[in-house]
Amino acid sequence: MLRTDTPVTVYRKDYTPPAFAIDHVDLVLDLDPQRTVVTSTLKIQRTGTADAPLVLAGEELELVGVRLDGQPFSGVKQDGDSLTLTGLPGTGTLEITTACNPAANTTLSGLYVSNGNFFTQCEAEGFRRITYFLDRPDVMTTYRVTLRADRAASPVLLSNGNLLSQRDLPDGKHEAVWEDPFRKPSYLFALVAGKLERIEQTIVSASGKQKLLQVWVEPQDLDKTRHAMDSLVHAIRWDEQRFGLELDLDRFMIVAVGDFNMGAMENKGLNIFNTKYVLANAQTATDVDFANIESVVAHEYFHNWTGNRVTCRDWFQLSLKEGLTVFRDQEFSADMMGSESGRAVKRIEDVRVLRQVQFPEDAGPMAHPVRPDSYEEINNFYTVTVYEKGAEVVRMYQTLLGRDGFRKGMDLYFQRHDGQAVTCDDFRAAMADANGRDLKQFGLWYSQAGTPVVTVKTAWDGASGTLTLTLSQRCPKVGIETRAGMPDKQPFHIPFALGLIDAEGNDLPLQREGEPKAGASTRVLDFTQAEQTFRFINLPRGGKAPLPSLLRNFSAPVVVDYEYSDAELTFLLSHDTDAFNRWEAGQRLATRALLHLVADVQANRELKLDPALVSAFRSVLTDGALNPAFREQALMLPAEAYLAERMGVADPTAIHRARLFLREGLARTLKAEWLAAYEANATPGEYSPDADSMARRALRNLALGYLADSGDADMQALADRHYQQSDNMTDRFAALSALVNSFAPGREHALADFYERFEDDALVIDKWFSLQGMQRGEVGPHAGKRTIDTVRALMQHPAFNLRNPNRARSLIFSFCSGNPAQFHAEDGSGYAFWADQVLALDAINPQVAARLARVMDRWQKYEMPLRERMRAALERVAASSTLSRDVREIVSKALSA
Ligand code: TRP
Ligand code: ZN
After folding, report:
1. With a 6 A CB cut-off, is 379 part of the ligand 1 pocket?
2. Is residue 121 lining ligand 1, measured as CB closer than 6 Å?
3. How far apart are CA 254 and CA 702, in angstroms?
4. Domains of the chain
C-alpha cells in the first residue's frame, strides 16, 4: 500500500507532453496468484529533448530485469514509485520484467484476485501496479497481450481486442494471445482469467458487420445475464441511431466481478463490471436494479467513443469523457422509458441526485470545478461534480444549440479528434465551431466551482400586457476558490428556460421585446450578465400577471430563488405543462412545510399537519391520468439530507422527527386514497421490467410504505401479506422495508426469512445489510433503540466482510450516509464508528476508505455539539501515521475548510 508523508499536489497548469512515445507494447503475463511475472516489451521513440530521461511509473513491483535492444541495460535507477532510464537512444526496444502479488492486492487497483479469478482495474493509475509504464492517458499505443495460466484454475483467458491464438503448454498450463488494433491509453488495458461462463449472441451493426457480444460471469450466475445482454443491444442500437456511432470491434465482452471499487469500467472491448450492475432476474433484482443495469451497461458501452476513441489528455479533463458519457446514458435511459412522461420521470430522478449529492459537494471543502485545477489523489476526483454536474454542462450545450446543433458539434468533435487525447476546451471548440457560436463565456462552467443562485423578480404592466423579468445571479467563492490570490468569479452563461401560464393553466405564446410576433411558449433565455432584464410583450391585457414557470426541465444546474405563494405552487403542481416543474412545485411545497415543522420541533411546539399540503398530495395521488411513476416521484418527500442543506444550521434529529410526522400524517389522513392506489396498481401476471409495470409497482410500493407507517395493525398485516405473496424482488424488498421501518410485528420473522431464502446470493444479502443499516431508531415502543447497536452487531455477522466493497458499503455506508438521524446521534457514537471504519478500511482499500471519509464533508453545517464531535472524529483519523494519500486528502481538506 502506498503511504506518503508529504502530500504532493498535482496542478493542471503544470501539464507537459511526455518525453517519449510508445509505438507498441507487447505484454506477456505468467499469471500466478502469489507471483505473477510480467514482461513488457516497449517500442519507444524519443519525442522530447535528446537528454531527457524516460521516467516510468510503477508501484508495489519487484523489478526483475531491464534490457535494451536485446542487451542487459544498466542506465536504470529505481526510486520510490518510479524507474528512471537515462542514456536511451532516439528509438529502441525496451524489455522490462517485473513481478507482482495479485492475491495480496486488497486495493482492487492493478491486478488482483477475486474469488479465485484474476481481474484488472487500471483507471486511473492502476496499470503502474502491473508494470513500469508511462501511465498517463496521453500516451496511446497498440497492445498485444499473451496470457499464460494454469488451465484448470483459469480455463478462460481474456484481454482487449481480438483473440489471435490459444494453445496448451506443458505443466498443465495454457496460453492465449490477444491483440487490440486500436491505440489506447494504459488505463483502458484489461485482462480477466478464471473459471467463468458466458452467454453470447451476434448482431449485425448498422453498416452490416457481424459482431459477437458476450457476458461473462461465474457459473452459478448465468441465469442472471439476460437483462445485461439486452441492455447492451439496446445501447448499441441507440448510439447508431442518435449519434451515428457504430461498434468498432468484432467482439465486445462484459465481465462481472464481485469485488470492485466502483460501478464498472470501460476497458476497450472488455468492460469489467461490479456484479451489482450486471446480475439480475425477477427473484433477485428490483426494478431499480434493472434500470441501473441498463444505464451502467449503456454508460460503459458509450465510452467506446466518448472516452476510448477520443480520450483525455490528462486527468484534469476527466469530465470530458465522464460528463459527456453520463449525459449520453441519461438520454438513452430517458428514450428507453418510451413516453414523454417517462422521460420527465428520468429527468426528475437525475436532478434529485444532483441536488441531494452534488450541490452539497459544491458547497463543501471538496468543492471543485468540473475541470479541477489540482488534486492530491486523482481517485478522489471521480465525483458527482465531474460526473453529474459535468453531464449538466453537456446538456446545456444541447439546450443552447438544439438537438441538431449538438449533433453537429459531436460530429465535428469526432472528425477532429478521433484517436487523440484531448481537453474539455477542444470539446467546447467543436460545439462552438460546428454551430458558429461564441461559447467563450460558457467555458466558465468548467473553471468555476459552486452552485449559482438565480434570483428572479417580475413586474407586470397589465395595461400594455408586458411582463418584465429581472434575473440576477450570484455564486460566492467555495472551497479552494476562497484561498488567497484566487481570481474573482465571473457571471455564468446560463440557459434559462421558462414559460408563462395564464389563469386557466394554459401556456401563453411568447413574444420578446424586439420580436415581430409571438412564438414558442417555452423560451431559453441566454442569461449571461450579473443582472439582466427580459421583457415579454403583447400578453393578454388587464387581469392578473401570468404565472412564470421557471427553469423548465431544469435547464441549468442552479438554484432558483423566487417567492411563489403556496397557492401558486399548488396551481403549478396541477397545471404546468412542464412535468419537471410540476414535480418541482410539489417539492417546494413539501420542503416549505417540512422546514416549518422542523422549526416547530426545535421550539417544542405542537406539530400540525398542513391541510393545503394534504390536499395537494390528495390531488396527485388520485389523478389517474398521471403516469404512476410521476405520481411516485411527486409523493416522495424531500430527503433528510436535502432538508439539512436547506437549513442554515442542520439539525438531523429535528429533521427526522418532522419528516416522520408528516409521513405518518399523510399516511393516516389519506389512508383510503393510498389503499385505492395500492389496489389499482397491481401488476397481475408474470413479472416484467417494462416501463409501465415498473411505474405501477413504484407507486404501489410507495403507497405500501406510507400505509405501514400509519402504524395501523391492518396495514402492517397488509405489508406482511405483500411480503409473503410477492413473486419478485421489487415487491418483496418493498414489503420488507415497510415492515422493518414501521417496526411491524412481522419484522423479525421477515428479516430471518429473507436471509434464509437468499443466503447464497451476495447481492441480495447486501440489500439485507443495507436495509438494517438504514433502519430508523426510536419509533413508538422502540424509542431509544439505537441503530448503531444493530450495525455494530451486524459487523460480527459471519456474512459480513470488510474486504468486499459491496458488503462494506451495504452496512457501513448505508448507516453513515443513508441514515442521518441515527448517524448524527448526539452521543457521537456514529462518528466514533465512522473513524474506526475509515481507519480499518484504509489499511485494506484506500479508495473505498476515502469515499467513506467524505461523509464528514459538511461537518461545519451541523449544530453544536455535533460539529465539535465530528471535528474530533476527523482529527482522530487525521492523526493516524499510516494514512493513505486518498484519505489524507479528504480529511485534511475537511479540517482546513
Ligand atoms: N471510468 C469508470 C466509469 O465511469 C469509473 C471507474 C471504474 C473508476 N473503476 C474505477 C474510476 C476505479 C476510478 C477508479 O465508468
Ligand atoms: Zn464513465
Report:
1. yes
2. yes
3. 34
4. 10-195 (2.60.40.1730)
